[in-house]
Amino acid sequence: MREDKMEINNSQKFYTKMIFRYLYSVGLGDWWYQHEDRSDSHRKLYCLWAVISNAYIFLNICNELLANFRKDLTDVEKNDAIQFSFAHPLIFAKIASFFFNRKKIREVFGRLLEENRSVYSCGELEKESMKQIKRYSLAFIGVSYMTLVMSTIDGLRAHFKEGIPIRTEVTYYPSPSNSGVIVNILRFLVEFHWWYIVSVMVAIDSLAVASFVFVTFKFKLLQRYFKDMGLTVRRDQSNMTDEALADKFRRDFIVGVKLHENALWCAENVQKAFGWVYSVQVFETVALLVMCLVKLVTTNHNMIFLLANFAFMLCVIILNGSYMMPAGDVTYEASEVPTSIFLCGWELVRQTDLRFLVVVAIQRSQVPVIMKAFGIMTLSYSNFIAVLRFSYSFFAVLY
Length: 399
Hints:
By secondary structure, this protein is an all-alpha fold. It has helices spanning about 1-10, 10-25, 40-65, 75-100, 100-115, 125-160, 180-235, 240-300, 305-335, 335-340, 350-365, 380-399, and strands spanning about 370-375, 375-380.
């Protein structure tokens, strides 16, 4: 019942809590900002599960890296082994980044979802932000699992055509020559591993992109506040004395300044909390696009292989775009705040000291809000294209 009320009253909080719950279920710990009491036996069992879950991810990635030292790899397996040697450690880097920044992430979402909500809110903007987040999340899920399905179909094709075990990942053990009940169980765990880590990756990516959208929502809300303030000043001008109007303007404007400072704090600390995730995503995009292009020119083609490879490339491109686009939205909406402050109705208030306050607020709002990867690369609409061009240029230099 409480969850239903949360979904109605604060859909952003409901959505984010679902992601944190999923990350908790896969062994990354409970980092939701609201504490939940659990029994000692639950905590001990969960600790055991967290060790097993993370060891499963880590050891299988090590198994994939060791596969590069196998002497019996075919050309296709060599290409796949190199590709997974980049892809899966980078996914693990995202997981590690989330874990090491978990306390900052908890603090950031506490401020994003709760701070100033009772001061000023807008249900229309909140619904708009949730629609945007759902679109990104569905895009993550759709392209990620489409890639997995196409790769599995390619493995089935090789199984029926060449008589080898079904394979999506290339590992040191078990190899195609190994057989037996235990080996088949291990082989299933190996194949399941890719699906498992992708589900964790999608959850972390959704959380990172949600933080962008929530910050954008903060700046849109701020614009709405100052524009509403201007309408209020114009409405009250004929009904209030100059002194009363100035006092009301001062109180309302100070609230707006506090809302702005909170939005700036959220933007700065979202960058601190997820900065490494952004960096990993950009590096992952370049590395994997180059690897996919290399596979296209070095591997014998068939329709299933081409579909699987293009699905992988599409997945990487959409993941990268889903970071760059909402990050660009943050920068754009923050740049619109000075105009909104200018329209707050200051010209109708006679006290000159309030005009000085407005000038200072406008100057403060003109500082660009920029999200970055590696601390230097701006996440923006134009750089989304730049990353794709750089990937192709790097491939062209190699071949």
